[in-house]
Structures
1.
Amino acid sequence: MEVINALGRRKSAIARIYVNPGKGAIVINNRPMEQYFPMDTLQYIVKQPLELTGTTANYDIKVNLDGGGSKGQAEALRLAIARALCKIDKEAHRPVLKTNGLLTRDPREVERKKPGRPGARKRFQFSKR
């Protein structure tokens, strides 16, 4: 099997991954995943597609993560891993990932701030007099 690459996005985070057969090591920006994402919840988000398909110890994943915050980066990485697993074996992995909603890109973005207002939707307090 050659190197499989995939792309995942969430908010303003972009994850580019390269998947090789291996022992299950995930390296993010030249650091181990446990060091890059110290919170257990973010590690769980990243490992979700691998655990659902039962391929946790089958592939080594090298990741370039850019932009966004930690949660957005973790979810972008989850989408990229799910897409890569579909490229590897579409018939076996796609139905499981699809039913759990891991192949859908979350389209929600931050709404821009409007002129003359304190935020995107918020208004200044109304004063009758």
2.
Amino acid sequence: MNTREYYLQLLNKHISNPKMIAHSIASEAVLRALARKFGENEDVWGIAGLLHDIDVEITNADSKTHGLVGAEMLANELPADAVDAIKMHNECAVGIPRSTRFQHALAAGETITGLIFATALVYPDKKIESVKVKSVTKRMKEKIFAASVKRENILECEKIGISIDEFVDISLSALRPIAAELGF
């Protein structure tokens, strides 16, 4: 594997939208935190989080190809389990359900970032630092709030043995130190 800087340059080569870059960096932070919790390789999980959407602009987020193209792009860049998790984060393109801890962690970890960002934006100061676990879990139940965020993906945290409250706490703790970099 290469350095994080190398992968960040690779991401920036293929993604021009600053919000998508922030989402990718946030996903990396959450995946690194989950890797620490499970005793997994933090660099492999983190880079999978960073690069999981590398093909989103190429595929125009098409549900039939997004993830598959990214996995193909990264086949010689990352370990096989990371490429697999990236491919499976959009299980619609693959046609089979996620089954490994890494797959569930990436799907849940990258999705929770959107709900946390949306929650921060309704706070007066718009800061991740101010967001509470209870606020995010409350927003989970409000289907109209951040309607594009797939709650079922977030709830995959339970498939890897983490309650929603603990998962939100892990995610917020991972994002707070990089909030300024994310624009929050």
3.
Amino acid sequence: MKNSDYTRSAFKHVIAWLKNKNMQTSKIAMQKALFYLQEKGLPLRLDFEPYSYGPFSRQVMETASDLERAGEISVDRTDYTPGPEFADILPEKGRREINAHLERFCELLGHDFSFDNLELCGTVLYCLQALRENGMAVDRDSVIHEVEQWKGKKYARSAIKAAYDALAEEFVNTGC
């Protein structure tokens, strides 16, 4: 399976998984779930950059547009929904791996897929990884500082700390 095919299949599987769990398939949920999956090591090869609501990949939007043209999904203002030609064709091994990561993603979010929680957790993870990639200290204070530089006072320090603490267990000492 070519990487672009894998990315497209993973995208569709995330939609199917969220639908199966009766969770929202919002654009922000998809952006942050795919960002998390990539940070966990899945070879999605998506480019994420800091944006208004946390890490954002134009390639996610392009994939959605391609799937919409093929009749596989419908794209509205805020959500993606399976279309008449939708088929989750990810091989079983890939499904198991993504499912395990998505279960963990939900746990890290406290099963709260609200817009603000997705934005905050995505932003904290992006800052944490950016500090690491730039050879800087990765600790609670440095991540809080980076989030505040990006988001100003939008989020209380206690909320940033809670998001950091949830993500640190998975990303600070593991090398992910």
4.
Amino acid sequence: MRKIKAEIINYSKMLNSRKLSALRSGNISARYKDGFLITPSGKKYSSLKNKDIVFVSLEGKFDKKKGIPSTEWQFHKDIYINKKEANAIVHAHSTNATAISTHKRGIPSFHYMVAMAGGHDIKCAKYATYGTKALSKNILSALNGRKACLIANHGQIAFEENLSKAFELAEEVENISLQYITSLKLGKPKILSLKEMKKVLSKSQNYKRG
């Protein structure tokens, strides 16, 4: 457990240093036994200690005496329940992904790297108040067949088989978001066909990231 907590803290601090989220915004978790370990509510990542990371069961139970989990623990729980391949989750309020999400729009296949999120596009989950069951339901819908999505007027979320890959995917989504915004400044970008994206998705399944 200590090793996983240390890893969560390390990547939480990277949310700040890589400019994916400022101060205490966003959250990170990792599957652990019959639940998951998650960053606490309201603490700056720069001050996190192992004792601050909170365990939440898949029934949504936690010991308040040992800390209060992020207010977003609900969608982490539901992703772990519904996505058996998910072992780590990174939620960020990254600038460009958030900017796109405020227009309640996803990211189409303007670039083949969109496939890194698992589908031919990146969906945007409908808006709901943070920390609610409604938001969790909307996120699960946007993650259908995908490992990442935007969240309307909120940010982005990515999951993977481990924290390293989940964090890298969140960085990919932010970079793709910046590229998409830049392409829109030049006009309407040309969109790759569904046929081409299916080819890319097939190739990406065998793509190994070093």
